[in-house]
């Protein structure tokens, strides 16, 4: 009677099938073994410029301190309303009210901390294209309000102009680099594979806390306060890949 090979348990047969399937998955499709295209080059180019923001922005605050909260609110509202009307009367100046804050004051008494009245403040923001005009207004409003900060700000129109101009320069620089690379590597030219045009960088100033600086309020009360927005470094970048052509 011929001998039969021992039967393989079903569990082992299923395990072998799973291994075969796993090996097949690792092998991947046939196209994965095909060579990747040669002559592909990654490039990046950038264009930058220093510009002066076309608007100046000033932030002032009406501040009152005392024990009677209702009286403090009325005093701040009156000061802010008078300053707002004065600013709105100046052609070329945009004025808007901002945050209103009420904070308790504290002091040490007999080793214990106790509330000692209130501090009420309200913010007034001014924008103007003419820094001298804004400086003159700040000299007047500084008699009743505290000057918190002065900075430059780019308008939407200026942002768009700079983005268009720097974007065109960055694209031209990218194309020049691609053409030079093709020539240096012995190719006749190139064609674009993919390209990304970045956003305008540097348009927003670095955030700074709006804190009253020593002497700033006193200088605001002087006529003709100098308000000059500083220069700002802007840039636009282009990155992507090109296919070099024989």
CATH architecture call of the largest domain: 2-Layer Sandwich
Strand content: 35-45%
Mean pLDDT across every amino acid position: 82
Structural class: alpha+beta
Characterize this entry briefly.
By secondary structure, this protein is an alpha+beta fold. The protein has helices at residues 10-27, 69-88, 131-141, 156-184, 216-220; strands at residues 40-51, 55-66, 93-109, 112-128, 146-153, 189-197, 232-245. The chain folds into two domains: 36-54 and 154-207 and 230-246, 2-Layer Sandwich (Translation Initiation Factor IF3); 55-107 and 114-153, Alpha-Beta Plaits (2-Layer Sandwich).
Please describe the topology of this protein.
Elements: H1 10-27, E1 40-51, E2 55-66, H2 69-88, E3 93-109, E4 112-128, H3 131-141, E5 146-153, H4 156-184, E6 189-197, H5 216-220, E7 232-245
Antiparallel strand pairs: 1-7, 2-4, 2-5, 3-4, 6-7
What descriptors fit this protein?
246 residues; single chain; Alpha-Beta Plaits; elongated; Translation Initiation Factor IF3
Tell me what the structure shows:
The chain is α+β, with helices and mostly antiparallel strands and 246 residues long. It folds into two domains: 36-54 and 154-207 and 230-246, 2-Layer Sandwich (Translation Initiation Factor IF3); 55-107 and 114-153, Alpha-Beta Plaits. 34% of the residues lie in helices and 36% in strands. It is built from five helices and seven strands, in the order αββαββαβαβαβ. A four-stranded antiparallel β-sheet has the order 3-4-2-5. Strands 1-7-6 form a three-stranded antiparallel β-sheet, with helices on one face. It is elongated. Residues 8-32 and 207-221 have low confidence and may be disordered.
């Amino acid at each position: 009677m011929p001998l039969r090979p021992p039967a393989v348990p079903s569990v082992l047969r299923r395990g072998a099938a799973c291994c075969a399937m796993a090996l097949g998955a690792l092998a991947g499709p046939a196209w994965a073994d095909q060579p990747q295209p040669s002559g592909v080059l990654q490039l990046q180019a950038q264009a930058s410029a220093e510009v002066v923001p076309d608007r100046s922005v000033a932030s002032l605050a009406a501040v009152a301190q005392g024990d009677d909260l209702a009286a403090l609110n009325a005093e701040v509202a009156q000061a802010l309303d008078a300053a707002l009307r004065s600013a709105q009367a100046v052609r070329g100046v945009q004025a808007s009210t901002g945050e209103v804050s009420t904070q308790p004051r504290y002091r040490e008494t007999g080793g214990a901390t106790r509330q000692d009245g209130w501090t009420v403040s309200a913010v007034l923001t001014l924008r103007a294209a003419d820094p001298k005009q804004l400086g003159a207004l700040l000299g007047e409003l500084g008699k009743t309000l505290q000057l918190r900060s002065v900075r430059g700000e780019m308008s939407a129109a200026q942002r768009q102009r700079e983005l268009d101009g720097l974007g065109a320069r960055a694209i031209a620089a990218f194309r020049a680099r691609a053409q030079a690379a093709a020539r240096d590597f012995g190719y006749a030219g190139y064609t674009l594979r993919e390209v990304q045009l970045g956003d305008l960088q540097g348009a927003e100033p670095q955030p700074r806390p709006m804190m009253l600086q020593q002497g700033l309020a006193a200088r605001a009360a002087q006529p003709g306060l100098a308000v000059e927005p500083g220069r700002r470094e802007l840039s636009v970048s282009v990155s992507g890949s090109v296919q070099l052509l024989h």
